[in-house]
Amino acid sequence: MEKKAIISIKSSQDIDQDGISVVTPGEFFILDKGFKAVYKETELSGMEGTITTLNIFDKSVELIREGSTTALMNFEKGKENVSLYNTPYGVLELRTKTLQLDILVDNNGGKIVIEYEMSVQGQVPYKTNLEIEIK
Known about the structure:
InterPro entries: Calycin, DUF1934. This protein is an all-beta fold. It has one domain (2-134): Beta Barrel (Lipocalin), CATH 2.40.128.20. 0% of the residues lie in helices and 74% in strands. It is built from no helices and 10 strands. It has strands at residues 2-13, 16-31, 34-40, 50-56, 61-67, 71-75, 80-87, 90-106, 109-120, 126-134. The protein has a 10-stranded antiparallel sheet, with no helix packed on it. β1 (2-13) and β2 form a beta hairpin. It is globular, with a radius of gyration of 14 Å. The protein starts with a strand and ends with a strand.
């Protein structure tokens, strides 16, 4: 089943406490084994022309970006993930380690909170907090 949704994204990093906050229209799907949320990135995120898909399961979240920026990131508490982040400026290797993952999503939407460490191309990792609310 598909529903129209309002998706709020807040992202902050320990190197930049201000972070960004975006509210955008999207779509919310109820699947047999979880949920899916889809939205278009905006100029504010720096990824205009990109569609982001969140596949939401009981204990993990898969983030897929396609368009001007492409990436596949998996978040599961305690697990590390290596992915390629393809931007208009080149390809970067991203390493993430999910420190905390709270998924409170049901057929009406909900909230996801992800705290993870991320490093780019072997640099020192920094902590990122990502909050996603689906209404």
